[in-house]
Amino acid sequence: MKICRICGKINIGKNLMCTKCGSPLNTKRGERCTIKGGLEAMSEHNFAEAMYRWVVAVRNGEMPDDEQYSRMLESTVDCIRLHLSDNNYYSREGVSELTRELDKNLMDDLLSELGNSLSYVNTKSQLSRLAGEYMFFAFDSYNIRFDLRDMVCVMNKAHGVMLDFKKIVPTLSGVDKNLDADLDFYLRYTDLIAEKMNNRIYREGRDRLATIVSFWESQGQLCYAEKAIDAAKAYSKIKLTRKESSARYAVANDKIDAFLDEYFSTPFKTMRKRCNLILSSIVVGNDNALICKLYKIYPVCVRKI
Asked: What's the confidence (pLDDT) of residue 2?
């Protein structure tokens, strides 16, 4: 647990930045928080420290040039690849935070590189770990995506990558009794969640979706991301325990519905509250003018008031 010295928010977990105001949660390493300092940390295979230094550096105004960015991406991918056989090395936080700060999409580039990493895989356990790494970042993409149409693309690409991974299983050495089940789970879930997101996007329509995307672009925190990841974890738990039942799947499906409701409903609930607050303070005589003004800002909401 860490307490933000700026806003006082209690942060539970391994966040590098405050989940409320975005301030660094550790202020003792500022002198090394540069792009160069991050590259040094990553060369020492200290993933979390490198991400921390890069996030702070960029927030302090040091944006990497193309050469520096290429080195950041290359060193990050190399660090992950080098530890595919190391079950004790499991620290990957910070990528979505850094991606939000950069003018390039580190998450997409990282996924692309990991998806093309089969030449670094020799055993089934390494492939299992690579698949897990890829899916971790695919799910973490919810933290940087405002438009669920983009997440449909991410999940469809993940589905294709998992198919490629599955094809090479017979050629690998070693034993991993869970590998086939893990890959089958990833294939089923990416297909399922992409279909559910697509169906809801189609139901909402283009105009409402544009309003929804615009709303989430204006928010500092994407609260639906946590629920989306919780839904994935619920399905993953069924896979890990190998205890499939209609009740367990019902719970997992409810979590998917909760995530979709959060994404599609929250913008209109929030805007309705804002409209109601303004409407409650309208001065008699100016009602029509102000309602017309509100209609231009929040058309869908005012139609429902």
From this structure: 66
